[in-house]
Amino acid sequence: MSEYMPERLEREPKPAEAEHHEHQRAHHEHSGKVESRPNLDKLRHQIAHEARGSKEVSVGEKESPADNQPITVNRDLINSSYHRSLKSVQAKLTGIDRLASKVIHKPTVEQISNVGAQTVARPSGIIGGASGALIGSLALLMMAKHYGLTYNYLMIFLFYTGGFVIGLLIEIIYRLFRPRRQNI
Questions:
Q1: Are the C-beta atoms of 106 and 90 separated by less than 8 Å?
Q2: What is the largest CA-CA distance in the chain?
Q3: What separation in angstroms does the CA of 45 have from each of 21, 39, 61?
Q4: DSSP character at residue 183
Q5: At what angle do helices 75-92 and 95-104 cross, to 10 degrees?
Q6: Residue 138: which of 115, 163, 124, 155 has the closest Cα?
Q7: Where are the alpha helices (DSSP H) in the chain?
Q8: pLDDT greater than 80 at residue 69
Q9: Ranges 14-18, 112-116, 169-173: which has the least confidence
Q10: Is it the case that residue 134 has pLDDT exceeding 70?
Q11: Is residue 132 within 8 Å of 164, Cβ to Cβ?
Q12: Are 132 and 166 contacting, i.e. CB atoms less than 8 angstroms apart?
C-alpha cells in the first residue's frame, strides 16, 4: 500500500463495511456534499480494486491455530498472578514493612482474615457492643455496690449483645434515611 494512505484504510473492509461506506458515499453525493479532498477518488478506486468479495474469502482463512484456543482463567493463573504481584510489591517495601507483609499474607493468616471479613461483625455493631458492655457493666457495678448485690459477670455478655444489636439498628436506620449523593 502507499505511504499517503491512512492506516484505517489499509485494512481490508468487510462486506458489511463496504456496503455501509458505499451507502454513506451515495448519501453524501445525493445531498450535494461531496468531499473535496484531492486523493479521495484515487483512494476509493484503490480500495475498490484491492477489496475482495465475500465469495473470494473463506471463513477462517486468516486465523491461526493459536487464535482459535480460548484463553481460560483458572485458579492456577489467578494464584500465580496474585503471588507475582505480591512479590513485586514486597520487593519495594522497607525491611519492617516487608516482614509484616510476609506475615500478613501467609495462607493461614489470610484464611482467618477472609473468614472474619465475611461475618456480620460490622464496625457499628462492634462499637455499639463495646459501648453497651462498658456503660451497662459500669451501671451494674454501681448498682451492685450501692444496693449490696453481687456482680453477675454474665451481664457483660448480655450488655455487649444488646449494644451490638443497637449499633446495627442505628446503622440500618442511618443508611435508610440518609440523603443520597448525586454524582455530577
A1: no
A2: 106
A3: 13, 10, 25
A4: -
A5: 160
A6: 155
A7: 7-10, 15-30, 40-50, 65-68, 75-92, 95-104, 107-117, 123-147, 154-177
A8: no
A9: 14-18
A10: yes
A11: yes
A12: yes
Q: Which residues contact 90 (CB under 8 A, 6 or more apart)?
A: 98, 101, 102
Give per-residue pLDDT as tens, 108-117.
888 887 776 6
- The Cα–Cα gap between 142 and 138 comes to 6
**Rounded Cα–Cα distance for residues 14 and 18 (Å):** 6
Cell 454513506 belongs to which residue?
Answer: 24
- For the ranges 9-13, 127-131, 162-166, which has the lowest average pLDDT? 9-13
Conformation bin of residue 165: beta by default, left when phi > 0, alpha when psi is -120 to 50: alpha
| Measured distance CA(80)–CA(58) in Å, rounded | 39
Q: What is the pLDDT averaged over residues 165-172?
A: 90
Residue closest to 39 by CA, chosen among 80, 9, 74: 9
163's grid cell: 449494644
Burial 112-141 (b: 16+ CB within 10 A, else e): eeeeeeeeeeeebbeebbebbbeebbeebe
Residue 33 clears pLDDT 60, i.e. is over it = no
